[in-house]
Design a protein that fits this description.
Two copies of one chain form a homodimer. Chain A is of the alpha/beta class. At the A-B interface, helix 3, helix 13 and helix 14 of A face helix 3, helix 13 and helix 14 of B.
């Protein structure tokens, strides 16, 4: 594999760990948050801005890029890194989740999933082999197996069958893999059932992947259920491999799940909420459209050093939002990603100094309790 | 006044001149193009980016800012410069044009114009005195008189009456002016009639403003008519004051009108066309959505040093446009403004070296002949 992972330090009072993920395009200090760049761009940001904000790894989406611009176009550029102007580590999600959530017509067969493009209605078959081929063409540092992501209302029987299918697909993905400079991560499923999560984790880890993701969460379930599913899974995952909780979460989720042993996260929340005007600050959430900010001449977050916070007032940011200006999405995204990156730095520092619980309490005071928002990119 | 203007050099073979406009917020080398920042932001760009692209002066719109966020909000920040984070020279348009083009219901009376807000339908009276008070509250370096901007199909009689009204309003604006650190520019009207243009220029210059704008053009008329109206006006304008052609134009327009003696321009074309995917390059116009760019791995403009051109391929820019990504608007705008700034640098250099006609021919080869697009910001 082209990636390696080392655990540098483990927390004495939780399952949190400090690690380093080494990829062909550089290192990532974990626990890490991966901003979502679904269509080969983090919405509203440039790669240079991501780098300056301290982002070390980005996620993009194989399903979206397969449909548009097409794998050949990306491949002709020499891969996704060159195509999108990001020379750091990259992860592609396989597209399983998007096939489920975006396609109008889909049919799951043992061979794969037949779906209709959300762009032009054309019909496609996504098999495990094709999911790997697409991701090898795109050339991210880390690629994901094809999984089936059941809805959170799925019955026990549905979740078990789906989990078995995901296991068979995982095995086929592993067999189909050709490139040795990419890491392949398996995905644990099992719906909202603790015993199925344990079964899935054992089945998937038996296949020996370079890392393990926990999928099918943050799809509408309660915080308690999210926590329970993570707790049912992590004990079955090997210490030596990175653990990636897909599509999670809020600032509070991140800290809580780091304490449960998670190393990697992705979520659309910081970027999507930025565009809809919800901003994360050291004083809690700010909904920038509120009239109370119309003449508020303070910085958005006095503790933040991002360009938005050091240059403009809340009043101006509210004006931009109300006026529907593109600069509103830009500055809000810049800030929220800055907040997430700073938070992950604090998380790593807290693990190193044994103060993760304090950070968790602080985040709970600022942002909890709010239900988890769906967020897989 | 807080501004001064000096003509440094005049072209031997045209009416073009090189000048320096000095304002309380810095100098502007003329001929200059002012990017349009209607709502206190150049759409999709930050002030820092504008500065880095070589922008020396921005235009914003008093009508828009009066309606949202309101003059008091801007005033409480210490003015528009602080509000929008731009510490360079600023010009505000009075709003006369926007009242005509955006308001659903309007009634012109000798006292001013009654209009309905395009945002919330509320009714407002914009008088010459109020237009000045608003712009004094906003605090730009250069403010504009309230004018009536007749449609280009206006009859001779309508255009003459409208022009007389604009003259009376100009006089009232001058009388209403209180701040002595702002320059006030008069606006010449007169529809599409050369004799009325000359009459208007004489009436407005008799009032002795700090600079003179030519308004009511680029509203749908032909290139010939645009040229004729400028030619009918410029001879009546004093050499010693800056001349500003409002809402013009394309790259070719700029060079052509500089040769007719114009010093200042504003136009939405570079920014609006960027968002709709029409890009100006050293190889001519590029409509980025075209399929021919889907796998074009060249830079957008090999001669341009902007971030978009030095980092990404046409193929990637097309992908961003097709995907409706905010980064598409950002990179396209960055490039088009970069192109305009470089062009104005070439214009000034061409005047200095007596080669403006060559530049005009080159622009004609690249961009002409295309009808003028309406563009007042």
């Amino acid at each position: 594999m082209g990636c390696s992972f080392t655990v540098e330090e483990t927390d004495a009072t939780s399952q949190a760990r400090l690690g380093t993920l080494t990829t062909p395009h550089g290192r990532v200090a974990t626990p890490a948050f991966m901003p979502v760049g679904t269509q080969a761009t983090v919405k509203a940001l440039t790669p240079v801005e991501c780098r300056e904000l301290g982002v070390e790894i980005l996620l993009t989406n194989a399903y979206h890029l397969y449909l548009r611009p097409g794998v050949e176009v990306v491949e002709a550029h020499g891969g996704l890194h060159r195509f999108m102007g990001w020379d750091g580590p990259l992860l592609t999600d396989s597209g399983g989740f998007q096939v489920m959530s975006l396609s109008k017509l889909r049919k799951i067969t043992p061979d794969g999933v037949v779906f209709q493009s959300h762009i032009d209605g054309s019909e496609h078959l996504l098999s495990p082999e094709k999911a790997v081929a697409i991701q090898e063409g795109l050339g991210a540092d880390i690629i994901m197996v094809l999984d089936e992501c059941p809805p959170y209302q799925a019955t026990y029987d549905y979740a078990r069958e789906s989990m078995d299918l995901t296991s068979r697909w995982a095995e086929r993905c592993r067999a189909a893999k050709r490139r040795d400079d990419q890491a392949l991560f398996g995905i644990v499923q099992g719906g909202m059932f603790a015993d199925l999560r344990a079964d899935s984790a054992q089945a998937i880890t038996a296949l020996d992947f370079d890392g393990y993701a926990i999928g099918g969460l943050s799809v509408g379930e309660s915080k308690e259920l999210l926590r329970a599913m993570v707790e049912a899974t992590v004990p079955w995952l090997p210490e030596s491999r990175p653990r990636y909780l897909m599509g999670v979460g809020t600032p509070l989720d991140l800290v809580e799940q780091v304490a449960r042993g998670i190393d990697l996260f992705d979520c659309v929340i910081p970027t999507r909420n930025a565009r809809t005007g919800t901003l994360f600050t050291s004083q809690g959430r700010i909904v920038i459209k509120h009239a109370r900010y119309s003449d508020d001449r303070q910085p958005l977050d006095p503790e933040c050093l991002c360009y938005a916070c050091t240059t403009f007032t809340r009043s101006y940011l509210r004006h931009l939002f109300q006026a529907g200006e593109i600069l509103s999405s830009r500055l809000n995204t810049l800030h929220n990603v800055s907040f997430y990156m700073r938070l992950m730095g604090e998380v790593r520092q807290a693990i190193a100094s044994g103060r993760l619980e304090d950070l968790c309490e602080r985040m709970e005071g600022l942002f909890g309790p709010v239900e988890t928002e769906p967020g897989r990119g």
